Fold this sequence. Notes:
This protein has helices at 7-10, 16-25, 44-55, 68-82, 97-109, 125-132, 151-157, 180-193, 250-263, 269-280, 284-305, 332-343, 369-383, 387-390; strands at residues 31-32, 92-95, 115-120, 136-141, 162-168, 196-200, 226-231, 244-247, 320-321, 345-346, 348-349, 361-364.
Amino acid sequence: MTEQLSTRVNSTETSPIRKLIDMVDRTPNVIGLHAGEPDFDTPIHIREAAKKALDEGYTHYAHTAGLPELREAIAEKLLKENNIKADSETEITVTVGGFAALFSTFQAVINPGDEVIVTEPSWPSYKGFTKLSGGILVPLQLKPPDYPLDVNSLTEKITEHTKMVVINNPNNPTGAVYSPEQLRDLASLAKKHDFLVLADEVYEKIVFDNTPHYSIASFTAMKEKTITVNSFSKTYAMTGWRVGYVVANEQITSGIRRIHSYIASCVSPAFQKAALAAITAPDDCVQRMVREYKERRDMTVEALNDIPLLQCIKPKGTFYLFPDVQGLGLPSADLAEQILKKAKVATIPGSAFGSSGEGHLRMAIAVSKKDLLEAVKRIGSFVKTLPSRRDK
């Protein structure tokens, strides 16, 4: 036996974000603006619900599709907040985080040779999911500074092999939130050309400046053509709990459940009880976190824009900034590495999110205001040492 790994694995790249995280782990005294998770503790009422569930014996296998009471609560939430009517028995599946929801979806609906159009800049894992399912990635490069969903460009990408379009709304890393007009145009194309839309909405509640979030599945005749993925991780600071869910029509749901059953027998029932407490309680804790993110956003954007040759707009959603660093004259991967080594600040190069992300860095505002200001100060000092600055 000369090769022990499958061609499937060998054809799949290690996430560029994972590579940088490994570098961060080897570098002392770093301010981490790289991690895509809230810095807040999971709210206490959610933690208490998990403890109570453990004491009540929720330590055994649960239904593969998720606890019925959690699926029912998700259905109520979808109807009330997203205007999506979903059957909790046949159209909602609780998964081991949003990651497993996405992986199961790709495996359930994509055949070898199917084309998957993914908006860029975008989370790198969409590329991996596409490759592992045998699909062909077709990037749809959106344009700064606002990265709107360009339907004209999308139309040019559609072929007879197009099976699915993936949108992340709000978008990681750009913070873009798609307007109802943009989503309506996408819906029209989906119906005209008969493709699916995968809507990753894990940041739906992290929006600012009264920007509304719309779910494309709520648009006329789109419920049957949309797969909506969500998670408790970002909204409720529950990244380590691994509870997510996916909503689709009955046929697709049956396929997703079949795939997910091979990944995990079930999601921890105690953690599902915690998720139930999260989704049925008032959103006060979420609103507090979002207010804090907004204050951090405003403060950090202002500070970044005081650094010569950097430009940063205020994102409408997520807890990421995506400043334009083209003026510094370095590829984003080299720049991120130098900032890590010399300024002790961890960021993610824009190139990790596709070629249209080049010339940018992603910075998570999921650290304290004190650390954010110190990070920007360090970056500013580093910029002054660059030849592009010394020549000015």
